[in-house]
Amino acid sequence: MHARKESTGWVAALTLMALLVALFTFAAAGCGESETADNTSSVPTEVLRLAYKQNVSTWDPSTGFGTEVVYTANVYEPLIYANPTGSSEPFSPCLATSWEVSDDGLEWTFYLRKGVTFHDGEPFNAEAVKYSFERTIDLNLGAAYLLSPIESIEVVDDYTVKFVLSSVIAFDRIVAGDYGAWIFSPKTKDWDTDYWDEGHEAGTGPYMLESYKPNEELVFARFADWWGEWDEKSMFEKVICKVVPEDGTQRQMLEASQVDFANSVPRDQVDALEANPDLTVYKAPSLDSYIMMFNTQRPPLDDVKVRQALSYAVPYEDIITVSVNGLGSQSHGPVPVGLWPNEAGDVPCYTTDYEKAAQLLAEAGYPDGEGIHKLVLTLTSENSIEQAYVPLIKEGFAKVGVEVQIKQTLSNQQNAIASGPKEDRQDLATLLWWPSMPDGYDNLSSMFRTEDPPAWNMAYWYNSEYDQKLTEAYALSATDPAKAQELYSECMNMLYEEAPAAYLFDAQTLVAYLRTIQLSDAAINFSYPQVLFWKEVTGK
Amino acid sequence: MTIWAYIIRRLALLVVVLLGIATLTFVMVRVVPSNPAMVYVGPTARPAQIEEARRLLGLDKPLYVQYGIYMKGLVTADWGESLRTKRPVLEDIMGFLPATLELIVVALLLASVVGIILGVSTAHMKGRWLDHAMRFFSIGGVSLPSFWLALMLQIVFFRLLGLLPVAGETDIMVAQAHPISEITGMSVVDALITFNWPGFWDALQHLILPVLALAAYPTGVIMRMTRSSMLEAMSLDYIRMAKAMGVPTRSLLYKAALKNALGPVFTAIGLTFAYSLTGTFFVEVIFAWPGLGQYATNSILSFDYPAIVGTTVVVAFVYVIVNLIVDLAQAAIDPRIVLR
Question: Which pLDDT value is given to residue B1?
C-alpha cells in the first residue's frame, strides 16, 4: 500500500514535468527552425529594422514637441537643414532651394523647390508653407513660441514666400528646426487631433507612415514620388520600427540580428558592444547637456562666492564616469560645445578643487560650511542619468561641509515646485536641457533670461545687462555673425563668473548597428538630436 | 436569496467601489504639486503654451469643477484624453488591455495546473524529497522579483541557448510575411482563429518567456495553498475511511480530497490574478510587451493623470469582477457555501 501510494505521486509529478519539458523543446525547436529559415531565404533586404526607445506623443506636426521627432523627421521636411559643426556652410537647402534676408534683417524670402508633392498627392507650393506656419502659430502649442516673431507670411508667387518679422532674429535656425518647422499638406485643414493621432501624416519626406500601433510598432514605406534621388540598389523600401523601452533588451535584439539598428543601448556595456565583430558602435555628440541651477535668490546661494565655491566642489569627472560611463565631457557653460555660439568651446569652466571651494566658502563667511542650511535638491527623477550622479554631488558638497537633501520629483513636479511659492522652492535643481532648434540661443535665453513668472530660469538669476546683450547678439546672428559671437561670448563668460548654475556635462548618444548596414555622414546630424535619417542608411 | 439577486447586489457594490477608487486616485494625483499642462505640451514647454494647454484641458477651472467633469465623463465612457499620447484614455486602455490579459490568463492557467498538481503531490508526499524540492521552488517563485526572473529567462533561453525570442509580441519579418489580423487583440488567439499558423507559432514563442516570468509567483502561491489545504482535507474522517476501504490513491487525492481542498485555492487564484495585473508592469517593460503594464508605467513616469486614473479604475474593475467569479465558483463546487 505504501509503495503504491508513493508511485502515484511520482507519476503525477513526473508526467507533468515531462509534459512541460516536451512542450518547451517542441516550441523551442520550432523557433530555431523558423529563424534559420528566415535568416537564409525569406528576409527581404529592402526592409530596415530598427529598435527605438521613443513613443509618439502626437502625430500633429504643429503641436509635436516630444520624442516623436525620431519618426517625423523622416516623414516631414523643413525649408532648410542645419549642417553639423565644421561644415563649410551652416545650412543646406531642402524644400527651399535658396533664401535671402533683407538688410534690416526683418524680411526673409525663401525660393521653393519645384516638383515636390505631399504624400496625399497635393502639390507643394508657397501656399502650403504659409498654411503650415500659420496653423502652428494659431494652435499656439508645442514649439509655437519659436514662431512668435513672425508678423506676416506673404505668398509672393507659387514658389516664393516671404516672412516679415517683428524683431530681428536668427530666423534661418528656426525654419531649420525639428519643432514647429515641418511643412505639411493644406489638405489636413479638416483633420482634428483624434484623426492625426490615429496615425496620419501629410508630409513630403522620403518615407510615409504605413501603419502605427502605439507603444509597439511603426511601419514606414518609401514615398515613390519623393523629389530626392533614390538609389534602388541600396536604399530601403520599407522601415519597421519596434518600440523597445529597455536598453538591455535593445542590445539583445541587436546581437541576435532581430533588428539592424538600436538607438538606445546600455552605456555601461559599450566595451562589450565594441568587442562584438558584427556591430558598429557609434558615439555621437548630442545636444543634451546636464546642468544644476542654484537658487540665487535665497541665502547662502545669493552670494556669488558660495556659488563659485560649490561649482568647485562638483566632482565633474566622477559624474561623467558613473552616470554615462565616460560618454560625455565637462560642459563649458550651458551651450553644448560644438553648437553655435559655443562651437569653439572656449568658455572657461570650473574644475573640481575642494581646497579652493573651502577657501571661497570661508571668504563668504561660511567656514567648513558652517551656517549653511541643508540644501534641498530636486531632480528629474525619471531620468536615470540624473539619478546616478545626484549622490555624487551630495558627496562632493559634503567634503566642504555643505549638506544636501535629495528630493525625488518628476520633471513636471520639479517645474511646479520651481515656479510655485518662493518659500517652497528648491535650493538646487538638476535638469537635462536640449535646445528646441539648432541654436544655443535657446539654452542661453530659456534658462537664464529674466522671466516672470519663472519657467525654466530655476536659478532666478535676473541680470538686465545679460538680457540686453543676449537680445542684441540674437538679432545680429544672421547678419553679422562675428559681432554676434563676440556678444554671445560675453554673455557666456558672465554665466561663468556669476555662476547661477553649475554646468555639469555634455552627453553623447550611443547607437549601435549591424555591419550589414551602412550609415552615411548625414545619417546622424547632431542638429537633430536622436534622429536617424533613414534615407542615409544603405544595405550591402 | 437567489443567485441573481446576489450578483446584482455585488455589481451595485462594484459601482460604488469604482466611483470611490476613481475619486481617491483623482484626488491623489491632483493634490501633489505637478503641472499636467506641461506634460501635454512637452518636456521643455514654455509658459505661453502651457497657459494655452491649461485652457484647452480645462485645468484653469477649480478642482471640484474638474472633478465633476471627470466623473461625468467616467460614467458616460469619456475618460478624457491622455496627456502623453493625446488619444482617448479608454481607447488606449482597450488597445493595450488584451495583450496584458493574454499574458495573465495564460500565466495563471499554467500556474493553476502546475500549482495544483504539484500541491497535491507534495501534500501526498509530505516530508519526502519531492516535498522539500518543491518547497524550494515555491518559495523561490514567490520571493524572486519578477523583473530579475525575466532578465534571467532572457539570458538563459535567448542569449545562452538561443531558443526563444527575447522580446516583443511577434517577430518583425514573420509579422510582415504573415500579418495577424486584429480581432481580439490577443495575437495568439487572433492567429489561431484566422488559421494563421506561422503567425500563431511565432506569437506562441514570444509568449513563453514573459508567461514564465509572470507565472512564477502564482505557481508558488497556488502550490503552497493547495498543499496546506490538501493536508487538512486528508486528515478528515471521510478520507481516512476511503483510504481504509482501499480507494485507489489517484481517485482519493483528485476526486475526494482535492474537491474539498479547492475552496481556498480558488481564492488564492483570484487574488493572484489581480496581483498579476500589476505584476506585469515590470515584465512588460523588460519584454517590450505592448500591454497595459507598459502603458501604466509610462503614464506614471510622466504624471499623465487621466491615464493613471483610468488604468486604476480598470484594474479595480477586473479585481472586483474576478473576486465575484471566484465567489460564485466556490459556491458552485462547495454546497456548504451560501452566498449572502
Answer: 58
Give the list of residues 6+ apart from residue B15 with CB closer than 8 angstroms, or none: none
- Partnered with residue A92 across adjacent β-strands are A81
Considering only residues 204 to 233 of chain A, which have any Cβ-Cβ distance to chain B shorter than 8 Å?
213-217
Which helix (H) or strand (E) is B12 found in, with range?
Answer: helix B3-31
Closest Cβ opposite residue B163 in set A28, A253, A420: A28
Say whether A332 sits in a helix, a strand or coil: coil
DSSP B298: H
User: pTM for the full model?
Assistant: 0.84
Q: Among all chains, which residue has been given the C-alpha cell 566622477?
A: A318
CA atoms within 13 A on the CB side of A208: 15
Q: At what angle do helices A481-498 and A304-312 cross, to 10 degrees?
A: 90
Q: What residues of chain A, 1 to 60, have a C-beta less than 8 Å from chain B?
A: 4-6, 8-10, 12-13, 16, 20, 24, 27-28, 30-32, 34, 38, 42-43, 47, 49, 55-58, 60
Of B124, B1, B121, B15, the closest CA to residue B71 belongs to B15
Dihedral angle computed from the Cα positions of residues A452, A458, A462 and A465, in that order, rounded to the nearest 10 degrees: -110
DSSP E strand stretches across A416-526 = 428-433, 501-514, 517-519
Q: C-alpha grid cell for residue A43?
A: 528576409
A507, A275 contact by CB (below 8 A): no
Alpha-carbon distances of B75 from A381, A487, B58, B62, rounded to whole Å: 34, 59, 19, 21
Within 8 A by CB and 6+ apart from B274, the residues are B315, B318, B319, B322, B323
Whether pLDDT at A92 is above 80: yes
- Does residue A478 come out as left (phi exceeding 0), alpha (psi in the -120 to 50 range) or beta? alpha
A 416-475 near B (Cβ less than 8 A): 416-417, 419-420, 433-434, 436, 446, 451, 453, 455-456
Q: How confident is the model at residue B322 (pLDDT cuts 50, 70, 90)?
A: confident
Per-residue model confidence as pLDDT tens digits over A498-519 = 999 999 999 998 999 999 999 9
- Selecting from A28, A216, A412 the residue whose C-beta is nearest the C-beta of B39 gives A412
Contact call for residues B324 and B339 (beta carbons, < 8 A): no
- pLDDT tens, residue by residue, B275-297: 888 788 889 988 989 899 889 98
In this structure, what DSSP letter does residue A481 have? H
Q: Of A529-533, B111-115, B154-158, B329-333, which gets the smallest average pLDDT? A: B329-333
List of chain B residues whose C-beta atoms are within 8 Å of the C-beta of residue A417: 33
Interface test with A, best of B44, B154, B223, B287 (most A CBs within 10 A): B44
